Amino acid sequence: MEKSSSVGASWADQWDYSNHGSGGQVLEKKKKSSGRSWKSGMEKTKAVAVLGFNKAKEGSSKGFHWIKDKYQKTTQKH
Q1: CB neighbours of residue 10 within 10 Å
Q2: Checking phi first, is residue 21 left (phi over 0); if not, alpha (psi -120 to 50) or beta?
Q3: What is the pTM of this model?
Q4: Where is this region: Disordered (predicted)?
Q5: How far apart are the C-alpha atoms of 62 and 25, rounded to whole Å?
Q6: How far apart are CA 25 and CA 17, in angstroms?
Q7: So where are the chain's domains?
Q8: DSSP string spanning the chain?
Q9: CA-derived radius of gyration, the chain
Q10: How far apart are CA 24 and CA 53, in angstroms?
């Protein structure tokens, strides 16, 4: 059975940013050249995360109020 390293870079090699061997040097160069896009990507990720959090918060709030209203309707004395 062949090892995956003979086919190409393993998952660990692709994400290893240390500077050992030629693979690390290639990744280091890519990391340095993409500094702006990385920052832009992080800003986009943060914006999406904040938007998602706000939607979840709003949905939870609406759900809580719906449950509260249902509970109050069932416990009111007529």
Answers
A1: 13
A2: left
A3: 0.44
A4: 1-43
A5: 52
A6: 8
A7: 9-75
A8: ---GGGTS--HHHHH--S--HHHHHHHHHHHHHTHHHHHHHHHHHHHHHHHHHHHHHHHHHHHHHHHHHHHHHHH---
A9: 25
A10: 36
